[in-house]
């Protein structure tokens, strides 16, 4: 039987945007690089992480869309978001970093379309007594 190469190279989510131009500005301010943009799609990346922003919006879709970004230092990311005045500039919701029971510390960031981001770092697992 012939061996098959089922290696994967990348996976990207298509993130919805209510206001495509505003969302592009938002993601650049958060720290992503706009690598490519066309009328209906924009490719964003940060290091080896990337996603596609689509010029498409359905409230039911956006309100149930969640992105998770695993970072090395969540406190630095939170400070960056605060320093960029993301909350004030884009009228979005941000919650400060907190330790989670699933061995992560994260903060919540909601984009201008209602997409929820959890920006997190791993933390040591606590031994139960």
Structure at a glance:
With 129 residues, this protein is an alpha/beta fold. 23% of the residues lie in helices and 36% in strands. The protein is globular.
What do these coordinates show?
This protein has 129 residues and is of the alpha/beta class. The chain has a single domain (14-122), classed as 2,3-Dihydroxybiphenyl 1,2-Dioxygenase, domain 1. Helix content is 23%, strand content 36%. The chain contains four helices and eight strands. The chain has helices at 20-30, 59-62, 74-83, 86-90, and strands at 14-16, 33-37, 41-46, 49-54, 66-70, 94-100, 104-110, 116-122. The strands form two sheets. The chain has a four-stranded mixed β-sheet, with helices on one face. A hairpin with a 5-residue loop joins strand 7 and strand 8. It is globular. The chain starts with 13 loop residues before the first strand and ends in a 7-residue tail after the last strand. The model has no long low-confidence stretch (mean pLDDT 95).
Topology:
Layout: E1 14-16, H1 20-30, E2 33-37, E3 41-46, E4 49-54, H2 59-62, E5 66-70, H3 74-83, H4 86-90, E6 94-100, E7 104-110, E8 116-122
Parallel strand pairs: 1-4, 5-8
Antiparallel strand pairs: 2-3, 3-4, 6-7, 7-8
